[in-house]
Amino acid sequence: MAALTLAALAEKLGAELRGDAAAEVTAIAGLGQAGAGQITFLSSSKYRQHLQTCKATAVMLTPADAEYFDGNALIVKDPYLAYAKVAQWLDSTPASAVDIAPSAYIAPDAILGEGVAVGHNAVIESGVVLGDHVQVGPGCFVGKGARLGSRTKLWANVSIYHNVVLGDDCLVQSGTVIGSDGFGYANDKGQWQKIPQLGTVRIGNRVEIGACTTIDRGALEDTLIADGVIIDNQCQIAHNVSIGENTAVAGATVMAGSLKVGKHCFIGGASVFNGHMEITDGVTVTGMAMVMRPITEPGVYSSGIPLQTNREWRKTAARVLKIEEMNKRLKSVEKKLEKDNQ
């Protein structure tokens, strides 16, 4: 178990240290649960009263909150960001694979870098290139010609189709499928003719993808996920979608084909995006939004109807169904008023 002194943490965080510099912490915990040997954080002043009963070895907090705590403190500008960094340094998550399991299949011409680990029953097909210290979890499939950059980690049962490219330091959670066929068909007198999906998926560096998410390969050109993107669980990213750097996509979001999402966007959970349009940089879309038109200006966008009681919802729905009739009546009244005022 890793142990870090408060002095070492203060140096790594650029924090002001108050208290016992030699005190050690081995884990991080919530403000109300942390005890001896653990470090915690206060990111919102509305929980300040809990500092009086906090039993943690140290607390990360802002200068404004520091005066309300008498124990060991690391004083930082952003305690939540400090928490994220310390959690990484004290992370005890195990490897998804260690060494090369005897039950794994690795094609003779696959190229493996130094320190690669492949779990039980994983399949590494012909032409695959795995960078240094890649981890491929049990039951994973890495298809022909795929490339995984250094230190990329696949948890169990991830499927990486042929010719897919992942950059360095990516993390893919269990059950995710990358490079499956896009939904491409032509209709021939009522019969569907499949369009082979000839592109691939290219994923940048430091991309994290949640469990059971699907990212389809492009029809002709590639589906593109830029550096630093984070995608939550159970999302659907269709063929030829492009997502810009450091954009965050929350769970159950659906993106239709050929959508282009800019850099530094925040996409709320269960949102739905139409295809063949562009979302500019710096856009926040709140949860359960239905985005049917391009967004050309940065800002916060929302849609949908908030929860109501069933009785209220039935009234709202009935009124919505009469909007066209109400609009016609309003225009008729406006025309009459305009005529009367002439």
UniProtKB/TrEMBL annotation:
Gene3D superfamilies: 1.20.5.170, Hexapeptide repeat proteins, MurE/MurF, N-terminal domain. Pathway: Bacterial outer membrane biogenesis; LPS lipid A biosynthesis. It comes from the Bacteria. The active site is at residue 239. Keywords: Acyltransferase, Lipid A biosynthesis, Lipid biosynthesis, Lipid metabolism, Repeat, Transferase. It catalyses: a UDP-3-O-[(3R)-3-hydroxyacyl]-alpha-D-glucosamine + a (3R)-hydroxyacyl-[ACP] = a UDP-2-N,3-O-bis[(3R)-3-hydroxyacyl]-alpha-D-glucosamine + holo-[ACP] + H(+). One of its GO terms (molecular function) is N-acyltransferase activity. CDD domains: LbH_LpxD. Residues 24-89 form the UDP-3-O-[3-hydroxymyristoyl] glucosamine N-acyltransferase non-repeat region domain. Its EC number is 2.3.1.191. The keyword Lipid biosynthesis applies. GO terms for biological process: lipid A biosynthetic process. SUPFAM superfamilies: Trimeric LpxA-like enzymes. Homotrimer. Catalyzes the N-acylation of UDP-3-O-acylglucosamine using 3-hydroxyacyl-ACP as the acyl donor. Is involved in the biosynthesis of lipid A, a phosphorylated glycolipid that anchors the lipopolysaccharide to the outer membrane of the cell. Belongs to the transferase hexapeptide repeat family. LpxD subfamily. This is UDP-3-O-acylglucosamine N-acyltransferase. It comes from Photobacterium halotolerans. The lineage of its organism: Bacteria, Pseudomonadati, Pseudomonadota, Gammaproteobacteria, Vibrionales.
